[in-house]
Design brief:
With 159 residues, the protein is α+β, with helices and mostly antiparallel strands. The protein is built from 4 helices and 5 strands, in the order H-E-H-E-H-E-H-E-E. A 5-stranded antiparallel β-sheet has the order 2-3-1-4-5.
């Protein structure tokens, strides 16, 4: 009968070596797969904030505005659809041009249009539902703006 040969390794050392090899393999595999994805053109696309503004025609009635508001409420909005009244639009314009009051000459509350606004968040913006909104009675124009974030610039989207 042969006696086992004595080893210099403590009893748990083999398991420790095996775990170290497994951990190193996982780290190297993660680095290799990430590098391959980056070289193939994959980039992380952060979520951005988009603001949709629908400006109503000055003569649009309440029924037309409510129909547009219902259609916009079908879009994924962060805080719902908000109405900007003529008075709010006038006040906003007045504050914006407060340094030059001559710009407010001839502008009255009644001449300001109402508008509907919503904010949505996503990696990109789907313009698909907007052409049907643009064709609705009482709609003057639609504007979609991607807000700036950190070092990323904002932009107006051509939907």
């Amino acid at each position: 009968m042969n006696d086992p040969q004595p080893t210099d390794d403590p009893p748990g050392r083999r398991w420790l070596q095996l775990l170290a090899v497994i951990a190193a393999t996982l780290v190297l595999g993660s680095i290799a797969s990430t590098t391959a994805m980056l070289l193939a053109g994959w980039r992380y696309a952060p979520e951005r904030e988009f603001t949709v503004s629908v400006v109503m025609q000055p003569d649009a009635d309440t029924g037309q505005r409510e129909a547009v508001q219902r259609r916009l409420s079908e879009l994924p909005a962060v805080d719902g659809v908000r109405l900007q009244t003529r008075e709010q639009a006038y006040e906003k314009l007045r504050q914006r041009v407060s340094g030059d009051p001559t710009q407010m000459e001839g502008i009255e509350v009644a001449t300001m249009p109402e508008s509907l606004h919503l904010t949505t968040v996503g990696r990109d913006f789907d313009c698909g539902p907007l052409p049907s909104v643009r064709k609705m009675a009482g709609v003057d124009r639609i504007r979609v703006v991607m807000r700036p974030e950190g070092s990323r610039p904002g932009a107006e989207l051509g939907c």
